[in-house]
Design a protein that fits this description.
Strand order of the largest sheet: 1-2-9-8-7-6
Number of strands: 30
Strand content: 35-45%
Distance between the termini: 35 Å
CATH topology: Neuraminidase
Helix content: under 10%
Shape: globular
CATH superfamily: TolB, C-terminal domain
Oligomer: single chain
Number of domains: 1
Length: about 425
């Protein structure tokens, strides 16, 4: 595929990095329209790469773009276009569907040299990018399509070890939240910033109302909540709650612990890792008490599972949730509105392989109640571990017109799901 490389933009010598604006024609071919029996033109055919994927009746899934380098989490810009963090490429790309046909005509690299780029989000005219060891932000101040400004926001996050991805998001309070995974399967952390969600001002300083803002240990000052082994993504719901997922520990068997796919994260609370986990499968009843992982003696922040906050909703072990989003659009049928879509990356080491799929979780009166598969077909068979599958969903985000975008970090695709009735 011919690539048209733009001019490398050299930034300030004081910062020591560059941004490359690179336009790449989308590698997905323009779909051909089918013809009905009367000779009239109907809707474009589903492009071939998506034909193996299964969605509920009334929905259509197509390849929006392909050829990306491990695309992970995504966000929508003010113009309604899609921005994607490419983890393996260490860069951020802008995907544009100018004619609205459901296929991105161009993929433009707007920033590179961003190791382990994982998530992106807009705030106050800046595009924030999470990397393995830091948070940066970039800006196209004059609107010419070139992101000429680039700043370090904070490197007050632990080194990328074991769970290396970092995810960022802005809350309704205007603050920057960052999730950081653990440095091992189930060891007690020596750096309290690991296995936690951190909270910063947009400039990377510590907010005065953080629960540990005045702690004598400066490493505790950015912590908002802890005991979260690997919350690879989180979402602020329409009613202001912070809901995160959580990848549970390994080596307790194929069924334990249940995967904690929705956790209501609150200021100063502890969510169990590495000492405790939520034992209930599905919707977790009020009053549930976490149980102890007998391999890990109590110590540090909690001394019993009574001090651990259980999840709101769980699923089978080893589903490995990554992207999570609330459906805030109106294009999908009513039963999907305000519900949660979550990308299950699927198992790689389970004796009973778990599927890699996009799951839908119903939310009633602000409470998750039930779940069902929404997009499947990434594996060749039920016996296949997802590490060997054809595709593997990673990120999910709702588009400006109510469509659902799904990134696939196994084969470099981004899919678009629309409701056609």
């Amino acid at each position: 595929m011919r690539r048209i490389v733009g001019i490398a933009l050299m930034l300030s010598l004081l910062t020591g990095f560059s941004v490359l604006a690179q336009d790449t024609p989308a590698t997905t071919p323009e779909p051909e329209a089918t013809t009905d029996m009367a000779g009239g033109e109907t809707a474009p055919a589903i492009n071939d790469a998506a034909s193996r994927l299964v969605v509920p009746d009334g929905f259509q899934v197509r390849v929006f773009a392909s050829g990306l380098e491990k695309p992970r989490l995504m966000t929508i810009g003010e113009d309604g276009s899609l921005y994607v963090a490419e983890q393996e490429g260490g860069r951020v790309s802008h995907l544009v569907d100018a004619n609205g046909d459901g296929v991105a005509e161009t993929v433009t690299v707007i920033a590179e040299n961003m190791p382990i780029a994982h998530s992106v989000e807009w705030h106050d005219g800046w595009l924030y990018v999470s990397e393995g060891n830091q948070i940066e932000r970039i800006q196209d101040a004059d609107g010419d399509g070139t992101f000429e400004a680039r700043e370090l926001v904070t490197d007050n996050i632990p080194e990328a070890v074991h769970h290396v991805t970092r995810t960022l998001g802005f809350g309704p309070d205007g603050m920057l939240y960052v999730s950081t995974g653990s440095s091992s399967n189930n060891n007690v952390e020596t750096d309290p910033r690991r296995a936690a969600i951190l909270r910063f001002n947009p400039d990377g300083t510590i907010p005065a109302d953080n629960p540990y803002a005045t702690d004598a240990d400066p490493l505790r000052q950015p912590i908002w909540a802890e005991g979260l082994r690997n919350s690879i993504d989180f979402v602020f719901t329409t009613d202001g709650q912070l809901w995160a997922n959580h990848n549970g520990v390994d080596d307790l068997g194929d069924e334990i612990p249940p995967e904690e796919v929705i956790i209501n994260v609150e200021k100063g609370k502890h969510y169990g890792f590495p000492y405790c986990y939520t034992p209930v499968l599905g919707a977790v009843p009020a009053g549930t008490v976490d149980v102890q992982d007998e391999r890990v003696p109590f110590g540090g922040p909690i001394s019993s599972c009574d001090q651990s906050s259980p999840a709101l909703f769980t699923d089978l072990a080893h589903y490995a949730p990554i992207g999570i989003t609330q459906y805030t659009g109106t294009a999908f049928p009513e039963q999907y509105q305000n519900g949660i879509f979550e990308a299950y990356h699927g198992s790689w080491n389970s004796g009973v392989p778990r599927d890699c799929a996009v799951q839908f979780i119903s939310v009633v009166d602000g409470v998750p109640t039930a779940s069902e598969p929404f997009m499947t077909g990434f594996r060749d068979s039920a016996e296949q571990n997802c590490a060997d599958a054809w595709g593997r969903p990673a990120g999910v985000t709702v588009g400006a017109n109510g469509e659902l975008f799904v990134s696939d970090d196994q084969n470099g695709n981004v899919y678009i799901v629309t409701y056609i009735g």
